[in-house]
Amino acid sequence: MDAFTGEAFDVADPTDWLNTPLACLMPVEQSLRCHVCKDFFTSPMLTSCNHTFCSLCIRRCLNADRKCPLCRKEDSESKLRGNWAMREAVEAFVKARDDILKFAKAPPPPPAVEKSPKRKAVKMDDAEGDFQESKRPRRSTRSAGARVKAQEEDMTEHLEEGQETEDEYIPEPEDGLVACPICSKRMKMEQVDRHLDTSCPGPDAPQPPTPISGRRGGNNFASSSRTPSSRSADPPPARLPAISYSMLKDTALRKKLAELGISSAGSRQVMEKRHQEWVTIWNANCDSAFPKTRQELLHDLNVWEKTMGSRAPTSSKAAITGAQIKEKDFDGGAWAAKHDSSFKDLIANARRTRELAKQKASEAAKEEEEKERQKNDGAAAAAAAAAPVPAAVPVAFYDYRSMDPPPSSQPDVPEAFGVNTSSTDPPPSSQPDILQLRSSQSTPGPSARRS
Amino acid sequence: MSFATKRLGKELSKINNSLPPGIELVSADNFEEWFLDIRVLDNNPLYANQVYRLKFKFSAQYPIEPPEVVFVKLANRPIPIHPHIYSNGIICLDLLGQQGWSPVQNVESICMSLQSMLTGNNKDERPAGDEEFVRGNRLRPKDIDFYYHDNNV
Known about the structure:
The complex is a heterodimer. Chain A is mainly alpha-helical.
């Protein structure tokens, strides 16, 4: 969590304006920030419900949910449109922010400044500040002076830039032609569109240095005086289409990843997520005024892979429909009607598998019984072989006798016992035995035999 | 640094500067788990003079994915009584589920929603099946299949 202690408390935030005389700028700044990442808009895009988000943010959201994060209206990536006015507003504000904030946070200027509100006067005051008695320590006075100088330089730079662009447009020859907005070649008005589409060679005049691509710091925004059309002449990279993963076999998906030049390692799920992330960052990059290089995007993908690749949320169709039925306004009746046949199939399926399971279970039970019986038989035989067991005899006897009608067999019982136990007086304990035998007699023959 | 960290950094700096009444940051020592205290602002007798502790857990997917938010029970921090709050602190609120969640929500807006969810309640009861759920539940809140049926919340 080193990032936590290092950067977290130094984040620029709309609340920076609170407790300054320019607190009214807080809502201004808020309106220039994305509701998803809370940062200034990066490649702002308009949804079809007219909300604006960073390109990357809204693409991620739509991937996860297919709804506008603000109004929950359904939308899709293909309907997003760039919000260029917002892009320029953000660029301009971000460029001015530090200076305005410094200005707002600076202690109230000494009264002398009031007399001469112009910049030059401030500078002179500051220069004199060295020998004037000052409430602030010298160091801060100096840095304040340096700051003003820097600001001034900045301002003149702006002015010069502005003048330059204005100068370009002054010598407009009256030849009834117009200049191409990119290469400045002069042609008939009707030809411009076609020229732009086909033969425009790109900007000819020496361009202002391209800003470092990728905007890491807040100040990497290009100067707002340059129009978007004057950016690099490379044709904009083509957007990647979303693919329906369920239509692709593993090998086809692997091939697709390889074609895109990204890793095709990992499980199916990981590959799908990686492809989706790549499409997302690639397409978001296409919306950028200052697109990153492919190498930088690959780096971003790598970072994503390390931080959350394996844990990214599944946005499979199953997950989405599963979630749908949990919603408050879910219409159970309609759902049941719509999916009636699938429900019936499922029920039939469940019944079938249950039957199968039952059959299997009973077969298994029979087998088990069979084994048990064999074992028992074996044990009984062994026991019989080991010692003559009197109990075995009556069972056999009664089995045999059970064919006779019970009344006639009844008087035989004591006799039988008398014979088998070889005692003339039946022991008192034999009474229950008889009952038992009688009950076994009343059960149907086969099962009695089996026990 | 993941986008979750970036976004949480911004939220934290805002929270450190200002929070709406009745919401206080207790601790945010990392970008995974924060604690906040909330109390109800009106004098609803069910919640008067009580402060409740909330635990927020953020995944690397935040704010695309909702954070996990539960009430925590401490000696001086009870679990508020509410028909959608289980006595183990788990909250059944569609805003916190994958369905009702939207990335424009944030820690502050969740706290405010919970404040208003409490304020608007006048039932002194726990959800149906609370005891059984509290006894049997081993799932994390995000893995529980809630069915959001109450349109009055």
